[in-house]
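Bug #77: duplicate submission created two jobs. Keeping one. Sequence:
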Amino acid sequence: MAWRALPLCIQSSSTGNNVTLSCALTEPKDVLQVTWQKDSDKSQNNIATYSTAMGLKIHEPYQDRMSVTSLALNETSITFWDTRMDDSGCYTCLFNVFPLGSFSGHTCLSVLGKVLCRNMSLVEKEVFSHPQHFLEWTQELQW
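Kept job's structure:
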């Protein structure tokens, strides 16, 4: 095959960070168009397409959340700004090469949520009464 996807493993990021996914052909080819897709269970959704003839098109809902940071036709990168949990998943880069057809590379992104931790105290107390009563202690959490 005449392609390689970088990185070759799952890339991780925390929510709110910027992350870049890259893909490149290992040999120069006559690339007409590069397309990035996000893989889903049933289909692949185009998120960005670039060609020298037609320019760059970033599809909704990614228009205000990502950019194509390398517009070379043999090497491409996309950068997500302010990553969200729903950016997690696998992505495919497609190089449409004349006259050979398309070559693809795959990479995955795992976006980890931020964990909010807080120390909490537990109070346990036995209460005996006659007749039997119900005692409930509550405290509102303040973040």
